[in-house]
Structure formats: C-alpha cells, structure tokens
Amino acid sequence: xxxxxxRVLRQVEVSVPQxxxxxxxxxxxxxxxxxxxxxxxxxxxxxxxxxxWMGFCAGEEFTESGEITLDARCVETAxxxxxxxxxxxxxxxxxxxxxxxxxxxxxxxxxxxLVLYLRAGVTNHIEMWQRSTLYDFRDEAxxxxxxxxxxxxxxxxxxxxxxxxxxxxxxxxxxxxxxRARLADEPAxxxxxxxxxxxxxxxxxxxxxxxxxxxxxxxxAGFIVGAVGVLLALH
Length: 235
Ligand SMILES: [Zn+2]
Hints:
Number of strands: 5
Structural class: mainly alpha
Largest sheet: 3 strands, mixed
Bound molecules: zinc ion
C-alpha cells in the first residue's frame, strides 16, 4: 500500500452553528415552500483572489450534495456579531442561484430572490424584501428599471401562490424569455409609433394650412360680394 505525508481533507457533516440555526429555522422552509439546501461554511482564503465573496453557489456538478457556500465568519462571533437577517439573506440569495442555474444576476434571478424574501417575511425586525439589492439585477444594467418592475410584479404574483419555490423558479424562467423578447421589440415598436405620430401631425398641419388658405379665399369672396353690394347700392 502506497503512503504519503500529505493530509487530505473532505467535507463532513457537522452540527449546525447556533447563529445559522436561529437565522434559518425549520418553519422558514414551510413559508418558503422550499426543500432545504445544504450549506457549507468556509473561510475565504486571503491573497488567492481579488474576488471578495460572502457566499457563492458553485455549479451542482462541482458540489458534494448541491450545497451552497457561505463565509464562516457570518455565523461565528470571533470577527463579526452574527445578524439573523444578514445570514438569512445570504442563504436565500445563494439558494436562488441553486434554483436558477445559468441565470446569474438577471431579472429572472432577481424575481426568484424576491419570491423567497417576500415569503420569508420579517426577520430581525426587517422585512426581508428590503434586502433585495440592485446587485441581484446587475446583469440588466441597461434595462434596470424595467427589469426590477417586471421582477417585482412577477414575484408578488407568485409569492402568494401555493407553488413550491422550485415551481416558481421554473415559471419565472419561462416567462423571462418572453419578457426579454418583448423588450428587444420595444425600440422597433417605439419607432413605429413615432413614425405614425409624424404622419398624423403632417396630415393635421396640411389640413390647417388648407383651412387657412380657404379662409383667405372666403374673405376675398366676402369682400368682393360686399364691394359689389356697395356699388349696386350707390348705383
Ligand atoms: Zn449572487
């Protein structure tokens, strides 16, 4: 048997950190209608990357059991004071990534985050939907107002249904394609509307012009009739 001096590590299930248990209790999943997703707590490695993260969601094929990863410092007391709304918000953000593979931070992802936050309700005296940030929508920078408005409307519609979070994610994913297609058509539709308005304005201008010309003609005719009348009277 070959031996080595190298220590090898792998994930093992450990007891849930207290701060995490308080921030993400079992009844939260009942409200979310979501199957609990495992969480892995690790410490960001210093100096390995300029990318700073509080959590991330690796592709499922790169995980042991579909887990999402959170910064261990959030649930420890050594460096930060644990905050339930922050821990829950991080967990739900990464959970939304697990539900929406291939979407990154677009309006569809933002809508799923909002569904989870709306269903989560209030944590640590904070309505969780207030934890939604523009970061959740950053891939839509060009159409941010429309993206947020769409996501807000869809999320409110779905949050109150009996659909599971996984079903909501599927519905949102399907609707997102249609919304994107409508958005792409919008410039063409706006141009067509502008063209139609231009034609209408031109027609109105022509009508007014012709009315003005006719008014002079009638005035002239009226003057001639009047003049003839006067001449006849003087005759
Ligand atoms: Zn993210």
